[in-house]
Design goal:
Two copies of one chain form a homodimer. Chain A is of the alpha/beta class and 256 residues long. Chain A is built from eight helices and eleven strands. Chains A, B: Pathway: Porphyrin-containing compound metabolism; siroheme biosynthesis; precorrin-2 from uroporphyrinogen III: step 1/1.
């Protein structure tokens, strides 16, 4: 197997965006970094086959896939630091884009405190892949002037301010919200009309992708009836209404 | 030159995300689609060298680079339809991710109305690349639970509701705002403290990248003094404050 690793890397950590699903949604730069990896730490939501792109690396799975207990964040950080200090190139692969909801901020701070060089390689976040699956723009200009990516899973176990988020008029892309989708949509119904378009896309960007398009009032029930669960992105807003035409037109293909 | 085009494509359009700058920030899927392109329509903000990845394609520049008048949207759509109906594979390359602020919604609708198959290939939006350049997470969980991508350039020439956007507590990533940055920051100062961290990243994700980190009160002047102009992303929020430590630590490298 040829590796294409022609970069001189030693003693550093690459925070690498593994994208939303299929491995061909990684960037060319990510593929190059993986080819040069000595140690590969694979996160929960990253494609489990990503180690096939890192033939020289020792792969360590640090997620909770398979019902195991999640690897503590502090332990992951210690692993990265230890291997980097040995002069190895550590690649930390995170699902989606590493800079969105990925604890990257804490990891960067920990590495920086140890004087370890950090490279960041961007990628495709699952909210974008969800829109691609639905065949729509996240920000169709007839409907809105932006999109808000928000996690339903807060550090203090509280809730985001749904009324404030609704008041922006932006498309809402809600991550990590499936376990409380009924509560989220109920909260949003206090601010948005019941017929506001809504969708759920599970496993966006992968062969397992499943989609439901509905309304804010019905999406929790419809997603439940279609047996959609985590990981998924919940999309809400006028721009999502374009999906109904798009999907029914049947002209949309996923891959190039 | 070998092309690696081993996909049977004919008579369709691929809306392709060209990423924020450097060509190696394209996805592997995007590179494969380009290798199979017969016609390549290159947008304003896409890397002008993207045609090097499409050796079999006739490249047509449809942006306003070089001071030429912008190609009208309707004309671009007619071009796509005409070539696709000839059985050619048309690749429409847009800067960043095609599904964010890219008129993709209108193009998908026009193609759908003609019964033309559309494939969408996601990519890296410049807001993510800007955060990578600053060495920060967009959503450090000590500071916020999300990020809002918003365009300052509205269809009706109005302004986004800056007070509503500020009230979400999310990081704000403002696109196409450099020509009115003073007005935007003045509007936000009605809702946010003067010392709120702020940054401008021009040409994010490319070798020409320039960055200024400052505060909401000073960023317009500081970006002006540093001669930063379009295209740039303006980032505002507590999470951006991590950039000051990150950049001064000097440990951050861009590429893998």
């Amino acid at each position: 197997m040829t590796t294409h690793c022609n970069v001189n890397v030693s003693g550093k950590v690459t925070l690498l965006s593994a994208g939303p699903g299929d491995l061909d949604l990684l960037t060319l730069r990510a593929a190059r970094a993986l080819a040069c990896a000595d140690i590969l730490l694979i996160d929960d939501l990253a494609n489990a086959d990503i180690d096939t792109l890192a033939p020289n690396a020792r792969a360590i799975r640090v997620g909770k896939r398979g019902g195991c207990k999640s690897t503590p964040q502090a332990f992951i950080q210690r692993l990265m630091i230890r291997y980097a200090k040995k002069g190895l190139h550590v690649v930390r692969a995170k699902g989606g884009d590493a800079l969105l909801f990925g604890r990257a901020g804490e990891e960067i701070a920990a590495l920086r405190d140890e004087g370890i060089e950090v490279a960041i390689v961007n990628g495709v976040s699952s909210g974008f892949a969800a829109a691609a699956g639905l065949g729509i723009s996240l920000t169709h200009r007839d409907h809105c002037q932006g999109v808000t990516f928000v996690t339903a899973h807060m550090q203090d176990h509280g809730q985001p301010d749904w009324a404030a988020l609704a008041a922006t008029g932006t498309t809402l892309a809600i991550y990590m919200g499936m376990s409380r989708i009924a509560g989220i949509t109920t909260a949003l119904l206090a601010s948005l009309p019941a017929h506001t378009p809504a969708a759920v896309v599970q496993h966006a960007g992968s062969a397992q992708e499943k989609r439901v398009v509905s309304t804010l009032e019905r999406i929790a029930d419809d997603a439940h009836a279609a047996r959609l669960g985590s990981p998924a992105v919940i999309l809400i807003g006028g721009a999502i209404g374009e999906a109904q035409r798009a999907v029914s037109a049947k002209g949309l293909a996923h891959a190039a």
